Structure formats: structure tokens, C-alpha cells
Amino acid sequence: MRLPPLSYRDSRSSWTKNTGTDTMELQAVLMAAGGGSRMTDLTYNTPKPMLPVGNKPLMWYPLNLLERVGFEEVIVITTKEVQKMMSTDSKMKRDIKMKMEVVCVPEDGDMGTADALRHIQQKIKTDILVVSCDLITDVALHEVVDLFRAHNATLAMLMSKAHEFTETVPGQKGKKRTAEQRDFVGVDESGKRLLFMANEADLEDGLSVRKSIIRKHPRMHIKTGLVDAHLYCLKKAVVDFLTENKSISSIRGELVPYLVRKQFSKTTNSQKVKEDLEDQTQKKNDCSTNHELLISSRDEPLLQLAQERSCWNDHRGDMSEAYHGGKLRCYVHIMEQGLCYRVNTLAAYIEANRQAPKLFEEPPVHPSAIISERCQVGSDSIIGERCQIAEKTSIKRSTIGISSNVKEKVKVTNSIVMHSVTIEEGCNIQGSVICSNAIIGRGADLKYCLVGNGQRIEPEAPCASLWLTQIRVSAVCVRVCVCVFVFFYVCVRACACVCVHYIDGEVREHGQNRTTRNSTAAACSHTHTHTHTRTLLTREHSHAPFVLSFHTTVAKLILSNRFLHTKTCLCGWNTALCHHLFWISTAERTNEVIVGTDQLMEI
Amino acid sequence: MLLQQQRKRSRIVKMADSGVTDGNEKKGDIERAKNEGKELTKEEKQRLRKEKKQQKKSKEKKDDKAIQESGKETKGDSSAVSAPQPSTQSTAQKAVPAPVSVPAPEAPTPAEKPPKSKAELKAERRARQEAERASKQSKKGDPGPQGAVSKSKAATNELQPVKRLPEHIQVDNPDVLKKLAKKLERQQIPLRLDYGYKVSLFSHLHQYSRKAPLTQQLSIPSTVIHPAIVRLGLQYSQGIVAGSNARSIALLHAFKQVIRDYTTPPNEELSRDLVNRLKPYISFLNQCRPLSASMGNAIKYVKKEISNIPSQCKEEEAKRKLLFCIEWYIKEKIILAAKAIAESSIEKISDGDVILIYGCSSLVNHILCEALEKNRKFRVIVVDSRPRLEGREALRRLVQRGISCTYVLISAVSYILPEVSKVFLGAHALLANGYVMSRVGTSQIALVAKAFNVPVLVCCETYKFCERVQTDSFVSNELDDPDDLIVTRNGQTHLEHWQQEPPLGLLNLVYDVTPPDFVDLVITELGMIPCTSVPVVLRVKNVDQ
User: Torsion angle, CA of B273/B278/B283/B288, rounded to 10 degrees?
Assistant: First the structure.
């Protein structure tokens, strides 16, 4: 998109076609079988590749990236479910003109990315470019590929400066997100050669760098705060290596660190020495080295000759030849600016939705959307196909999905509304994510909430009139399978009453309406609440939905009721909830909780 | 091939520049030439004056020579063998309109001689035939749309040879650029944009930025261009493959891959189709970095071998043949040549010598390593210059072998020269007039060495000999990325925003030419020859092929 448009890109007279050979320079592989384990709330009903970002399925972005730079074919590794959805999705059909070869992998099987590559090994004829389905970027892809080409590298990958997500994330209270474990990435002086890679999690005490690296590259820059974009150029030999070596199951977790490490190992560098060894030892080594030898790109003698004659060297300061005679080389391109998101957390998903309009030049409002004249739609909002937006509505910095219906006097700011959502009159939605097919009842006021797929938020009126004078249904979140709803209803000034209603799987069968009715009916009982709260918190297997934003008094009540147990109780829970409850439990001791909640409410 | 032709044409232009008045038609040419080639150097002007004098003398002779014009030129070459000292130029050759082989501007004229001997006549006849063949071949050389154009304009072409300057030295001419863009579009190769402000004298040359490689405009699984060529182009433009030997080997290697992956489409002939296939590749490489003379020769050879393949030859057979030819070329012209040169130059290295080398020539390094193996006791002084500091690499290679070395920068060359006993230089190309084209700075070293009376030996394989004629470094040269001149020292980067200073221009010149006066000897695989014998070698080579 930011590349100059060129007629050469879609030229038909390619050398491959003329010659009729199968030799291609690169094959693209899209990994779209991931479950989205870090954003289970969103991916419960919609598989991650099909999550709408800017009203396009998430996997459209990497596909578009590939198509834009000139790929004509792509192998998509995905699940049956996604394949079915892909075949029905109009956007995918219309926008992607590439030939897509879809390969399904078993859904529940514990298949890593490297396993998936092994799975399609038959289809791989040449070097590959592996892209993850959750990458949204405007990188000039040639930068990565050029490193791969020019240095005849075994691996070239893309990294980017980590983005700070400033937006408040529904479901994640508190400003600090659960700190991810940092990656340490060592590069040489040019900043291109990847020398070292370690994750904080793997370090026991301190960072140790092997002598063989330091000897060859005495000046190494170790960088942190980088995000791996999960875009890799790999030599065909690596795929062959994977088929030989079955123990590796993930590209990022095992293969890449292995390749980076192997750059400096002796087996790949001093093959000559090996050859001179006695037969017996060689036989022993054969089994072990064969796997490794396969990986090092075989330089032809002529190329080597050219290298010898060339007066270029990649380093200075010691007596060895270019690349230190190593044949396995890993390179990394680090994006200093530009967009690069991996949509694997809720925060990234929200951020990506904000940035998505910048990535494609389409009118933000789809022509088939029906928008009444007397409503405000900000230029930074996207309105999908067949949407209906009624009068006196204001939509700012938001995405409204396909076939959604927004009724009168609704205010939507900073929110993501997915497909076929109905928002009734007078709602106020702020900073929230509303999943597909949800129905938001009249006059609901949602702030920083996550509303699950097909959920129905009851109109505010009955609850409010029955119980409270000032009530906020602050958030309802979701998992239908273990359908637990927690409602906090607060009576101001009245004796505190916290109702936590717990509905088990059986209740779900009674249908949506019944469920909500039940909950409403049951919510008044104080004792009831108490027991259920306890079950709620001790259930280890539960992926509980949670209520996140609530009135100050609620916090007080929670604390006074002391239904928080030990930390161990919480460990089986959704991380976000864990974090949230943990935060309260720690705050309890310092009595800062009220201040904290107040602040949060203001955000 | 095409390139070569263009070069030839440029030569003709130069000849036209030298101001011959040989009929109305040619007068027109010269006028045009004067207008177009504004930058006449001093030398050229001097030559011009001399030739005018000459012309008066040879006026009577002109009539019977008019027929044999084209023949004379090669004849001039042959006389260059016997009399290598440059002298005045033949009147006859200057007016040649057709692109013919080697011109020898310095060749002595036979104008004053009495009627020709039998042998001379014979030589003339042969030369004429050769010229005819050459012109035929040149027509054959550019088939396709270009050929058609040239045929249709055949009549006008003769009137305007001036327009046929090679496009890579006419970057300041918008018409030529437009033509180039058109040609590239036809070949589906993107046009690489010039970068930054150019120093005024060099505005006619391309100047590219390393940061804007051609690949950013190509599709990523490259479809138009063979991946091996794309890789090579990148390696050229980033300087990973540098030095004319390395570049030629890498080029031939890439060609081998192209040939291996090639299958003739139905209804096509291999010899024609493959040559056409290579053309866009070559223009792609030329944009990544202007081709070196050695690469030009290698391309010429490959093309000739391809066109020599008989049409009834089976594809597999033909491909095998071509691969073998390429292998042979590398082995014979580069590897064995280097060996032969090393052998003969070791004779020139005696114990106790102090040898000065400049930059990083793979051939000179090879010679020194061989000499060490022959147990010669010598010391090496490596002279280096910015911005590439290739000397460091040479230093590394020599020290690794155990040769004792001294490293100085070119600014200290006059200080170091008194202790030097011989200067060994590599070459990018040897031009037909005996000038040595080499890394910028070579000429300066040769000059200083001459002043100190130190013998200067140039080592060069014959495949780097080039039919081009050049007397200065301005007309045809290469501009490297000016950003290379920027240095960061102690965290400070001066010149970082040089583009924002309008009066400031950075010049990163790649080559210079050394006049033959400063070169004592050229060591080739054919033996040791004086610079001025280049035309002989070229002619012998032409006959061989």
C-alpha cells in the first residue's frame, strides 16, 4: 500500500510460466490454525483467523500483504471450521485473488507450527515464507526477503519495536498488563545478523552468551522490547531438516532458537575437520550430524570461488573470512517505524482495529450501509455492509460490523461492534468490544466491557426499577459453555447487597432468555450469593467470565464480604480475572481500593 | 552485445569529435558531435589540432582511400604492434560511419607512405571483410523490436551516429532517459531512480542509493527475473560481490543456473530465445550496478556461444554444451589465467623486495600468496583509501597467509614510496588505448611511483581487455552511493543531512584511468606486454573466437 504501484508486479510473462518448470523463488505459507489461546473470550465462537478487524477477517491482512507484494499462490494451513467460514466469507472471496491452497490440520490435536510445516512437506518445493495469520503490518516485505536473498541466509525474520497499547482494555483492569516475558535478541553491528536469542523464561540466573559467539562477534547489541512478527523466510533445507528431526514442534519456540544457536556450533562450520576424522568416529557422528548438515545451505563451489575473490567482508577485527566461514546464517529485519501488530491479545486486537483503517484505501462507510442523515459518524469509524444506523446516533472511533443495526440515540465511542449486532435505543457504549449477534437492550450503558457472542444485555429498565435507583450494568462477559454470569447490582446507601449469580451448564440449555430471567430473579438473595460466590472462586476448571467495571461501593462490598480466598484458589482462572481479583486482594491490605476503582471508572 | 555495440558507437562519436572534414555528410556529423559532446578534454582538443594538420597533408591521398575507409582502421591496429609509441592518427579511420572493430587513435598513419605493398593490401582486404562481418553481426545482434527500429531507421542512422552514445553516460539527457525507461518497461524491469544531487561534472552518470534497491519495485517471488539473477543483483548493489573477478564468476554462475532452469518454449529456437531471455536480466544487473568490462566480455562470450548452437541441436545437449562452455570460460580465463599470471609475475619478485599494493585485487593477492609459497622473501605495503577501505580485506588475507605487511592510507603514499621496490596493481579493465582502468586512486599511486622511479606492474587477465577508448575518468565512470562517504565517529555523524545543503555535493567515484606512461608493464596470462599492446591482444582474441 505504501509501495509504489507497479505494472511489473502482475506481469503475466514470467520466466516460470514460460519455462513451465515448477521452480519458484518463494512459496508462501499462512499459518491460520492457531486457537488464540490468549484471547479466549473473543475466539470462543469465532476462530481467530476469522475475527473481524476493520470489518475484514484477521487472516485477510497477511493474505493481502502477500498478494500486494506479488505472490500468486499461498498455502493456508488451517482448521476445518475456518475453511468452511472462508468459503462463505464474501470479503475473502472478493478481495483475495491469489490461488489459495487450503490444508486442514486436526483441530484439537496439539499441532505446533513446525508440525504443520512437516505436515505439508510434500507441497514445499522451494524456499518458504511463513506468515502467521495474526500479523497486521505495513512492512516493506522486500527488506526481509532481500536479507534472505543477498546473504543466502537460512533464516530471515521480521521483528518490530513493541507497541505500547494505551487504550483501556475491557477485562484487564489496572494499567499494568500481565508482563510478558521479554525476549533478548542479539544482533551484530549492522543490526541485521541475528546472533543470539533468549527468552526471559528460559533464563535461570542471568544471561549467558556462549564463547563461540563472543569470539566471532565481540560487539553484539542485545535488544529488548522487540516483538517477533512471526514472519520467517526459511530455506527448503530447513523443512527437510524438520522431517528428519521430529522433536521440534514449534517454529518460534524451538526451530528459530535452534537455528540461531547452530550458527556458531562446530558441526556446521568445520565440516572439513569432520571429513578427516577416522571412519569409525564418522559413522558415529553421521547420525547426529546428518540432520544438522542438511540445514546449512550448500554453497556451490563456484559461489564460494566468487566469495573468495570478492573484497567484501561482513566483519572486521579478526582473521577469518566473510561470515567466519559459516554456512548457516540467520538475519533479522527490525522495523523501526510503521505498523506491526500481532493480534494475539485483546489489547492488540483493539489497537489493530483502531489502526486498520489506515491500512487500506477503502471508504470507511460501506456504500450499502443505510445511514440516516441526522447522525454523526466520525471519519475515523468504519461502517460495514448493510448496516443500519438510525437518527441521532453518534459513532466515534469505532467499527460497526456487517449487518449491524444501531437504533436511535445511541452513542458509540472507541468501541468495536462485530457483525449482526443490534443496539437498541439510547445505549451508551464506550471502549467496549461487542461480539457478533449480541443484542444490547434499550438504554444500556456499557463502559469498557466485553460482550460475548450472541449475548443479550437486558434493557436497563426492569432491573433498575426493581432494585436500584442508580445502577450500572457495568459489564457482562461471556463464555457460553461454562456459562457463569456474575452480576453486581449495587444499592446505593442501602445495606449492601452483592449478588453473584452462578449458572451452570445445565441452565444454558433453557435458552438465553430464561437464563437472564433466572439471574434476575435470583439476584436478590443475599445468602444465595454468598454460597455461590464461594463455588465460583474455587472452581478450578472454570474460565469464568467476569464483571470488571463497577461502582466504588462494589469494591468496598467485595472487600467487606471477604469472599476472596487465597491466591491458589484463583490459579485455574482466566488470567485477566485472576489479575483483576488478585489486584483487589492485594489492595485490600492497603485499603487503597476505593481510590483505585474511582480512577478506573474515570478512564 | 548490445552494450558492446553502444560502446563502439560511442567511439565513433569520439572519432567524429576529432574533427575530420571528409565530405558534407561528415561535416554535419562533426557539427553535431561538437554540439553534443560538449565536454571535450584538453587532450582531445590537442589531438583535434594535430589531425587537422595531418589532413591537409593527406588530401591527395583521400580519393583512393575513400573506398577502403573501413579497412584502414584495423590496419591501424596492426601497425600498432610494430610501433607501440603513440603517434598521430590516421585520417582515414576518423570518418568511418559504420561500427567497426578496434579503433586505434594512437596508431601511426600510413598516409604518408608510398603505394601499398602486397601484404598491406591483403591486410586491408581482410580488414574490410571483417568490418563487413562485424556490421552484419551487429545487425543480427539486436533482433526484436529494437532491431526493427534500427532497420527502419537505417538510412537516418548513418547520418546521426552521434545519437548513439551509450545511455548509461547520458543520464542528464531526458530523451535518452525516456528511451531507457521505455526499453525497461518492455523488458518488464523497473527503473531505478537516481539518488541525490550529483556533482556537476558527473551529472551524466547514474548515482543510486544502496538503501533503495531495485527489488522494492519487484514482486517478491520474482517472476520476471530468475531468482539467481535477483540475488546476484542485490549482491552487486550491496557490494557483497565486489571486484571484477568475483563479479564475473558470480555472473557466470547465475547464468549457469538460468540455463539449467531453462526450457525452450514451443515454436521457439533455443539460440534465439535464450539470448532474448538474458537481455532483461542483463539490464536488471546493469541497473543494480553498471556492468564491469569483464562482465561485458563474459556476457559477449556467453551470447556468442548461445548463438553458435545449431538449431537442430537437442535442448539437453545444447544446455550441457553451454554449461560446459561457461565452466571452461571460468577455468580458462579466470582461474588458469590467474595461475599463469602468478607464475610469470613471481619471476619479477625477488628476495628482499618491498611490494606496494593498492586496494584489494584478488589477482594481486593471489600472486603474493603464490610467491610466498615459492619461498620468496618479500614485504608488502598495503595502501588503502576511503570510503570502502578494501585494503583492510587485502591486509587480512595477506597477514593470514603469513606475509609481513604494512598498512598506510593513500595520503601517506609519497612518504612510504622511497622504501618500495615494486608496485603491483590490479585492474578493472585495460582499454584499447593502453589506459588502465582501475579503482580510483590507482592513477595517483602510479604517478607517485613514476616520480620515485619505482616500477609499476599491472596484473590483468586478458578477458578484462576492453575495446573501449578512454583518456579521462569523466566520460565513462561509475558513481557509488554518496552516503558511503558519511562517517560516524564518536557517536557523531557529520554530513548526515548533506542533501539539505544545496551547495554541497558528495562524489564517490569508483574508477579512474591511468595513462600508459605511468605503467611499466602489464602482466597477462599471455606474458608480459606493454600497455600499448592491448589492441594486438584484442585483435588476436577476435581472430581466435
Answer: 160
Between the alpha carbon of residue B90 and those of residues A20, A108, B65, B113, B258, the distances in Å are 55, 87, 11, 12, 45
φ, ψ dihedrals at A439, nearest 5°: -125, 125
Helix boundaries (H) for A499-574 = 505-508, 512-522, 526-538, 552-561, 567-570
Contact A561, A599 (CB under 8 A): no
> Hey, what amino acid is at B432?
A
Q: Is B467 exposed, middle or buried (0-12, 13-18, 19+ CB in 10 A)?
A: buried
pLDDT for A419 beyond 60: yes
Question: Residues 6 or more apart from B471 whose CB is under 8 A from it?
Answer: B41, B43, B44, B433, B435, B513, B515
> Is residue B267 within 8 Å of residue B315, measured between CB atoms?
no
Mean pLDDT throughout A573-594?
39
Q: Furthest-apart CA pair in chain B: how many Å?
A: 75
Q: How many helices (H) and strands (E) does chain B have?
A: 21, 12
pLDDT at B346: 93
Cα B71–B76–B81 angle (5° rounding)?
A: 135
pLDDT > 70 in chain A, percent: 65
Chain A CA closest to residue B238: A150
Contact A44, A481 (CB under 8 A): yes
Task: Name chain B contacts of A141, Cβ cutoff 8 Å.
Answer: 220
CA B181 to chain centre: 23
The predicted-structure confidence for B369-402, as pLDDT tens digits, reads as follows: 999 999 999 999 999 998 889 999 999 999 999 9
Quick check: bond before B387 cis, omega within 30?
Answer: yes
Mean pLDDT of A107-122: 84
Provide the pLDDT confidence category of residue B543 given band limits of 50, 70 and 90: confident
pLDDT of residue B454: 96
Mean pLDDT (chain A, rounded):
69
User: Which of B218, B242, B265 minimises the CB distance to A310?
Assistant: B242
The mean of the pLDDT values for chain B is 78
Of A8, A146, A303, the CB nearest to B190: A8
Instruction: State which amino acid sits at residue A361.
Output: E
Q: What local confidence, expressed as pLDDT, does residue B284 receive?
A: 92
B437: which DSSP letter? E
Looking up cell 487472516, which residue turns up?
A59
**Residues in chain B within 8 Å Cβ distance of A305:** 249, 330, 335
Residue with cell 556533482: B199
B48 and chain A in contact, CB less than 8 A: no
**The pTM is what?**
0.72
Query: Which residues are within 8 A (CB) of A261 and not within 5 positions of it... i.e. 6 or more apart?
Result: none
The rounded distance, in Å, linking the Cα atoms of A86 and B320 is 48
At residue B236 the predicted structure's pLDDT band, cuts being 50, 70 and 90, is very high
Angular region, A503: left φ>0, alpha ψ -120 to 50, beta rest: beta
Among the residue ranges A173-182, A341-350, A433-442, B309-318, the one predicted with the least confidence is A173-182
In this predicted structure, what is the pLDDT of residue B186?
A: 86
Distance CA B460, CA B297 (A): 14
* Set of chain B residues whose Cβ sits within 8 Å of the Cβ of A21: 261, 263
* Residue of B209, B215, B220 to mutate when probing chain A, most A C-beta within 10 A: B220
Distance separating alpha carbons of residues A479 and A453, to the nearest angstrom: 8
Please, how many CA atoms are within 13 Å of residue B463, restricted to the half-sphere of its CB? 27
Read off the pLDDT of each residue in B131-148 and give the average, rounded to a whole number.
Answer: 53
Q: Which domains are seen in chain A, by residue range?
A: 26-171+180-266+325-342 (3.90.550.10), 363-463 (2.160.10.10)
Mean pLDDT of A483-503: 31
How far is residue A156's CA from residue A47's CA, in Å, rounded to a whole number?
A: 29
Residue B402 per-residue DSSP state: T
Q: What was the pLDDT predicted at B74?
A: 41
